[in-house]
Structures are given as C-alpha cells and as structure tokens.
Design a protein that fits this description.
The longest helix is centred in the N-terminal third of the chain and has 23 residues, at 4-26. The chain contains 2 helices and 7 strands, in the order ααβββββββ. Strands 1, 2, 3, 4, 5, 6 and 7 form a 7-stranded mixed beta sheet that branches. The chain folds into 2 domains: 1-52, no CATH class; 57-177, no CATH class. By secondary structure, the protein is an alpha/beta fold.
Length: 178
C-alpha cells in the first residue's frame, strides 16, 4: 500500500478519539490504564519489529539525536526509527547498488537533509501531519495532514535509485541535487 503512513496516522487518531469519547461518556480515567498499556504495546512492537522486516533490511533506532551518513558508505534497505532526530543522508560518495533501494524513516519530529548526485535517482514521500519540503533553489512546499512527494527528473531512467519514505508527525525535508 503506497499510503501506509497516512493510514497508520488515521488509525491512531481514530483510536485516540474513540478512547477519549468513551472516557467522557462513562467518566473513566483513560490515562490511568491507557498510557501503561500503550507503553507496553510499544515496547513489544519495537522488540518484534526487526523480525517483521524483509530479509536484508537493517533497522536502527535513535530516541533523540542525529543520524549522519556521509562520505564512503553503502546504501542498503533500512528502517530508521526516532522520536526527535536530525537525519543527514549524503549520497554523493555513497555506494548505491543498481536498482531501487528503500530507506524508511519513522518518527515523531524530524529534519531530513538529502544530498544526491545527478546520476542517482531519488524519490521522497512524506506522510506527516505537517511536512515542509524544500529543494535547493525552489520555493518551500508545505503540506498539512497530507502526503508530500518529490522525484528527481530522470528517476525511472537512472540505473541506481533511492526511495526515501518518511512517516512522522512533523517533518522538514531539504533536498540538494549536486
């Protein structure tokens, strides 16, 4: 499903709304049992998530911090989880394999800086409550509760391609083609 991030955000918002409605109607203190159960379920999910990934897909997690990939590095399918993070991915000297490689960034608040050479195809898809997308030299594009998409001009024609899928609450994306 292409719009998986928006579906997840929608389900979470609907579930939260139903819980708060039930809390108001029946005078139940949802916070007394909802937060502990939510944290337990989140812990179980994070524990089991690496086993649910496709073979060869890496997984990393940062609670608050930076993820920097620059210089010589090998691009591999990966999921990057974060709460609040600044992610810098520089593909100019990276070893990008032929075909399309998917990187998924999943978190709450994130700034993503992408630097890509012209001979590598890049597609970016952000599903967030608020997305700010800026390509160097062009005006900033803001999206509220929607999907923001960007694709390099010759994406389909390039031999080496990278797809970056971002699911978050607030996302700021800066793209620079060199």
């Amino acid at each position: 499903m292409r719009n998986q991030g928006m579906l997840l955000i929608g389900v979470v918002l609907i579930a939260a709304g139903v819980l708060f409605l039930v809390s108001s109607l029946f005078d139940i203190n949802i916070g007394a049992w909802c937060w502990p159960i939510g944290l337990i379920l989140l812990g179980i999910f994070l524990f089991l998530r690496p086993r649910m990934l496709a073979a060869g897909t890496g997984s990393s997690a940062v609670f608050i911090g930076d993820t920097d990939r620059a210089g010589q590095w090998t691009v591999r399918p990966e999921e990057m989880w974060y709460f609040i993070a600044d992610t810098d991915l520089d593909f100019t000297k990276a070893d990008v394999p032929p075909g399309e490689t998917i990187l998924r960034l999943i978190g709450f608040i994130g700034e993503v800086n992408l630097t890509v050479p012209v001979d590598v195809g890049l597609t970016v898809r952000s599903s967030a409550f608020v997305t700010s997308l800026k390509e160097a030299g062009l005006p900033e594009e803001d999206t509220v509760f929607g999907t923001a998409d960007w694709q390099s001009p010759d994406f389909k024609a390039t031999e080496r391609r990278v797809g970056v899928e971002i699911t978050s609450f607030i996302s700021e994306i800066k793209i620079r083609v060199v």
